[in-house]
C-alpha cells in the first residue's frame, strides 16, 4: 500500500493580508528586540556613533521617545487606511469593527501624552499632547470623509486598472518625493501643515521651503550656528502665534466668566513662555559655533 501525502501550501487570497500581518508582526518583534539589545550593550560606550548605528530617539529637551509611540501612530494610520479603502462599506460586520476601532482609537489617543512621556501627565501642561493628537485624528478623518485622499495625486482606480511598470513606478516615485517633503515639514515643527499637506500636496512644498519653527529639530540642526536665521524664525513665530495666543487668552477669560480682550503685556508674557530657540546639538561645541558664525 502507498499513501500519497499531498499538502497544499497555497494561501487563500482572502487570508493573504492576515499572513502578511503575522509575518510583519514576528519580524518586527525580533528586529526591535535586536536593536534594543544593541543600544543597551553600547549605552555606556564613549566611542563616537556612526550614522548607521542604532540609537535612542529623543528630542532636544531630553524627552526619550519609546518605540511604542511609533507603534501607536502606525496602528492608527493603518487602521484608518483600512477603514477608508474598504471595498464594500455596506458589510455590517466591517462597519461594527470600524466602530470599535474608533472607540479604541479615542481611548488610546486620550492617553497619548502618557504613552509619550511614560508618566501620568493627564492634567498637567504636557497632557495637552493628547488633545493635539485627538484634534489631528479628527482633522484627518474629516478630510477623508469629505473625499480628500492622502497623497492627493494618488488615484486608487488608476493604480488598480493600470498595471504597467512605467505608470506604477511613476506613482511610487512621486509618493516617495511627497513623503520626503512631509518629513521635512514635520521636522520643521509644522505638524498641521504636514498633516493637511498629505491631502493637499502644494502645502507641503510651501511648508518645506519656509523657515522652520525655532524649537523644531530642523532649527536645532540648521539654525543654532546661524544666529540671524534663528532670530528671523523667533520673530516670525511671535508674529504668527500672537493672534492664536490672544484668542486663547480671551477664551480662558470667557470660560472664567469675565470675557475681555487680553492686553499686550499678558500676550507677550505667554509668548515668552511658549516660544523658545532650539538648543544646540550635544555633539557641537561652542568653539564650533564661533568658527561657523559669519563675520
UniProtKB/TrEMBL annotation:
<feature type="transmembrane region" description="Helical">
    <location>
        <begin position="133"/>
        <end position="153"/>
    </location>
</feature>
<feature type="transmembrane region" description="Helical">
    <location>
        <begin position="94"/>
        <end position="118"/>
    </location>
</feature>
<keyword id="KW-1133">Transmembrane helix</keyword>
<feature type="region of interest" description="Disordered">
    <location>
        <begin position="275"/>
        <end position="295"/>
    </location>
</feature>
<feature type="transmembrane region" description="Helical">
    <location>
        <begin position="165"/>
        <end position="186"/>
    </location>
</feature>
<feature type="transmembrane region" description="Helical">
    <location>
        <begin position="65"/>
        <end position="87"/>
    </location>
</feature>
<feature type="transmembrane region" description="Helical">
    <location>
        <begin position="192"/>
        <end position="212"/>
    </location>
</feature>
<protein>
    <recommendedName>
        <fullName>Integral membrane protein</fullName>
    </recommendedName>
</protein>
<keyword id="KW-0812">Transmembrane</keyword>
<keyword id="KW-0472">Membrane</keyword>
<feature type="transmembrane region" description="Helical">
    <location>
        <begin position="16"/>
        <end position="36"/>
    </location>
</feature>
Amino acid at each position: 500500500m502507498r499513501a500519497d501525502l499531498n499538502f497544499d501550501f497555497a494561501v487563500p487570497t482572502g487570508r493573504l493580508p492576515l499572513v502578511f500581518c503575522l509575518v510583519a508582526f514576528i519580524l518586527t518583534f525580533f528586529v526591535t528586540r535586536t536593536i534594543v539589545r544593541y543600544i543597551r550593550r553600547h549605552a555606556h560606550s564613549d566611542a563616537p556613533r556612526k550614522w548607521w548605528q542604532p540609537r535612542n530617539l529623543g528630542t532636544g529637551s531630553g524627552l526619550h521617545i519609546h518605540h511604542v509611540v511609533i507603534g501607536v501612530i502606525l496602528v492608527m494610520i493603518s487602521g484608518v487606511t483600512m477603514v477608508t479603502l474598504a471595498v464594500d462599506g455596506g458589510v455590517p460586520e466591517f462597519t461594527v469593527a470600524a466602530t470599535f476601532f474608533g472607540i479604541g482609537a479615542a481611548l488610546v489617543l486620550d492617553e497619548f501624552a502618557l504613552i509619550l512621556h511614560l508618566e501620568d501627565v493627564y492634567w498637567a501642561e504636557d497632557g495637552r499632547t493628547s488633545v493635539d493628537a485627538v484634534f489631528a485624528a479628527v482633522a484627518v478623518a474629516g478630510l477623508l470623509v469629505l473625499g480628500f485622499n492622502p497623497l492627493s495625486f494618488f488615484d486608487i482606480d488608476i493604480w488598480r486598472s493600470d498595471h504597467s511598470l512605467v505608470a506604477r513606478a511613476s506613482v511610487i516615485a512621486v509618493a516617495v518625493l511627497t513623503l520626503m517633503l512631509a518629513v521635512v515639514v514635520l521636522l520643521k515643527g509644522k505638524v498641521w501643515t504636514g498633516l493637511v499637506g498629505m491631502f493637499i500636496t502644494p502645502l507641503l512644498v510651501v511648508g518645506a521651503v519656509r523657515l522652520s519653527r525655532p524649537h523644531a529639530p530642523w532649527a536645532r540642526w540648521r539654525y543654532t550656528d546661524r544666529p540671524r536665521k534663528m532670530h528671523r524664525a523667533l520673530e516670525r513665530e511671535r508674529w504668527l502665534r500672537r493672534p492664536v495666543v490672544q484668542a486663547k487668552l480671551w477664551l480662558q477669560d470667557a470660560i472664567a466668566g469675565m470675557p475681555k480682550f487680553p492686553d499686550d503685556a499678558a500676550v507677550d508674557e505667554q509668548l515668552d513662555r511658549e516660544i523658545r530657540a532650539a538648543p544646540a546639538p550635544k555633539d557641537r561645541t561652542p568653539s564650533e559655533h564661533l568658527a561657523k558664525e559669519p563675520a
